[in-house]
Fold each of these.
Amino acid sequence: MNICSVCGNEFKGSTASCPYCGSPAGAGSVQTNPFATPPGFKKAKKAGGQKIVTVNIESGMPDVAQAMVQLDLKLSVARQQGVALVKVIHGWGSTGAGGRIKAALPQHLADLRRRRVIRGFVAGDQFAVSTRQGANLISKFPELKNSMHTDRKNAGITFVEL
């Protein structure tokens, strides 16, 4: 199985592009690894001395409650590992119009920010050099410039700063 790192959907076989979002499969997909620890994490990258990880809370088609529990667990593990930024793949719904997880995530993250569990978050559709939120995030994490072609204005992801 392959997982598209742009939209988070799983797909079989080798194709030139993701059958869900159309992003180039070679650039945006990764092979699933049943032995990955912890599940859902990609290897942390250092960005200016800070670690960045990607987690997929959409994998396995959880309901909203399950996805939020999974997110809380992965954020806790990331914090323990010294991660500074988490790229959360939540998808934008199978209809392309926004799913339940995508709709519930901003409220959940706002609550985590109020409780000082996280520093902040930027929705993927606000991640661009031309937006204040995107520019601030890029200034803190310059390595994100490398992913602008897949992450810019991507409604299927959210960045969470720990």
Amino acid sequence: MTESQIEQPGEWDIRWILSVLPHRYPMLLVDRVLAIEPGHRIVALKNVTINEEVFLGHFPGHPVVPGVLLIEGLAQAGGLLLLHDLPAERRQQTLLYFSGIEKARFRRPVVPGDQVRYEVDVVRFRPGGTSKMAGRVMVGDVVAAEARLTSTMVER
């Protein structure tokens, strides 16, 4: 991405995220968007804290974010990217279903105190149809997880 292609944050606070995604606590896994290259790439953050409900059972005394939630966070970031360009009225009429996972790999545990950075790139986009994305979950400069994701756009 070149600087001229990257949109800068400002409008992508939590209110914007909530206006785009149907997810709510405890399933909303994106706190902030750092950068969007429309139709191509998104970088978003999630702050992992010990007070999240999942840590009551995964695992007591040794809290680790479940891998499935890392992949879901990638899917939510990808959803923000795919829905970004739609007019607000159309967004309200559209849902993205997470429809496939390929090549998922978990490289490093994610624990409370980590700041997760989701980096998602569009591999193939079909407006109104199925899209394929490649994503990485980063903690600092280390890849914690990665996967290829498929999503399908449907009417609500």
Amino acid sequence: MITVEEARSLYEGADPIHDFSHVLRVLALAERLAEMEGADREIVRTAVLLHDVSRPADSDLALTAAEETDHAVLAGREARRILAGEDPAFVDAVVHAIEAHRFRNNIEPQTLEAKVLFDADKLDAIGAVGVARAFAYGGHLGQPLWGPVSEGYRPGQNNDEPHTAHHEFHVKLKHIKERLYTSGGRRLAEERHRFMVAFFEQMAAEVEGRR
């Protein structure tokens, strides 16, 4: 089994949005959800600690669409290597949870443990922390602070429209609450979702001079 300190070393040089602080926040949420839902805590804990191990280093943030889509699968592959020698059924369960944790892919969580990891990871993307992460990531990539979102906007398909945290809210963040799998995750998402929606409404009003 992997310890927290062993996992910490695997995230050296990670970008500030997917660094080990993110892992620890997800771990706290996942352990809470695992207890609420009756999931196997060891599978959940191991999957959380390894779920972002194959994200690029801070200096390599400019990902291609294929690389970004594949990061969960790559992390699962790396987790299988790290866990070599453990019980194969345990490893398979951990790897599936990691591969299925991504919002933008077609791997559906099939186990309770995979659903717990998915929900915990997504809860860290909404609420006050989620707002902070969205703007931190945008600033890190040199994105504008704000921009209007055109109807039908899709990342990478509107080349003349810079992607901002506001765009990320409309494309992904506001839909997360509806995508969660566990009853506990959905309950925890309610307050975070309300705060996030209110924040973006307030910021839009301030940017437009209405408040």
Amino acid sequence: MTVVEILCIAIGLIVSYLIGSMTPSIWIGRIFYNVDVRTKGSKNAGTTNTIRVLGPKAGIIVFIIDVLKGCLALYLSNIFVSSFLYDTPLEMFNIVSAACVVLGHVFPIYEGFKGGKGVATMLGVLIYLYSEIFWILLLIFIIVFIIWRYISLGSITAAIAFPITYYIYSAYWAKDIDPILFIFAIVVAIFIVITHRNNIKRLAKGEEKKFKFKKTE
């Protein structure tokens, strides 16, 4: 691998991280509401807390942007390596790029490395890398949410179901399990569960707030 190719890989990953670091919940709150969502509610720079603090209109916009930036980061980072990376090396690059955009969301360089939990951005990554099972995971999330009204529980359940769903789909439908994507699915599930550890504690104690489509702060 040449120096230029290594440089292109590095630039691609940096681009993913910088896109991930774009935090619409903080920026919209600061510009249009004069509020830092990280100081209200659950103090999380994500969709749920944005709806809780700023209202559903702002929350929907934040959600869409966070999802799109997951897709956009992978798309743009691929431009830097598409001429010399193929097959497994390209898959590995996409996995690392996906990790970078999510880490950017969780630890945004523009906002003192204090961001959200990365669920919506990870959703964008799944749309890009796992389009064949995305709708199954979305359905799982929706069912859990409708029954219990907890965004966190829906996210955790869908995350745990992610590697299981990918394995079943790949083994019995596609007849081809990609070990790289399977391992990444496991890592994602663990990551989502860890970032929701406080929610899990509140759920266990019965203290988690049920989601409402309105401003509550």
